[in-house]
Amino acid sequence: MFARIAGVGSYLPGSPVSNADLVARGVDTNDDWVICCTGIKTRHFAQAGVTSSDLAFEACRRALASAGKAASDIDLIIVATSTPDAIFPSTACLLQAKLGDRGAMAKTIATVERHGNSSAASIPLALGAAVLDGRVQRGHKLLLEGIGGGFTWDAVLLQF
Predict the structure, then answer these.
(1) Going by C-beta distance under 8 Å and a sequence separation of 6 or more, which residues neighbour residue 155?
(2) Could you give the angle at the alpha carbon of 147 between the alpha carbons of 141 and 150, nearest 5°?
(3) What are the helix and strand counts (H, E) for the chain?
(4) Cα–Cα distance for residue pair 68/66, rounded to 1 Å
(5) Which of 11, 60, 65, 94 has its CA 20 to 30 A from that of 84?
């Protein structure tokens, strides 16, 4: 089974927050320590009330635009996250509704119980689970959505 990347998108909410900003807010740390231990210089915080599916929607919208596709072209929406909007309905179903798509299968796949909080590997692990479960067929267009290290939402449109 072969696949190609048809489009990509990402989204960062709000304004950047530097390590110095955290110190000014009273966090007991310093810029050198944070950079040395994590490599992080800035991060973005979503405003109150903004959910995972809201962030995913922006990244997906950009991935679809990058591929020149519409939400109605998607066969399967996979959201890989350990920070869902709610247990039910799934974040994938909420994302599907925000995209205005009624035809695709939508599935939130959590692999944290099997693999731990794998962050960067969450999308390939979720894709692997979907393939092994028989949800992916040749010709399907998959919208894969996940959070990277808690800092950015990314999406990729994959054509099998």
Answers:
(1) 8, 9, 10, 56, 59, 60, 62, 63, 143, 144, 145, 146
(2) 175
(3) 6, 7
(4) 6
(5) 65
* Entry pTM: 0.72
The pLDDT tens digits of the residues spanning 1-21 come to 567 788 888 888 888 889 899
Helix (H) or strand (E) holding 6: strand 4-11
Q: Is the pLDDT of residue 101 over 70?
A: yes
- Enter the tokens of residue 157: 């449109």
Distance of alpha carbon 51 from alpha carbon 67, whole angstroms = 25
Sequence letter at residue 153: W
CA distance 92 to 49: 18
Q: What tokens were used for 74?
A: 């998607």
How confident is the model at residue 80, as a pLDDT? 77
| C-beta atoms surrounding 85 within 10 Å | 20
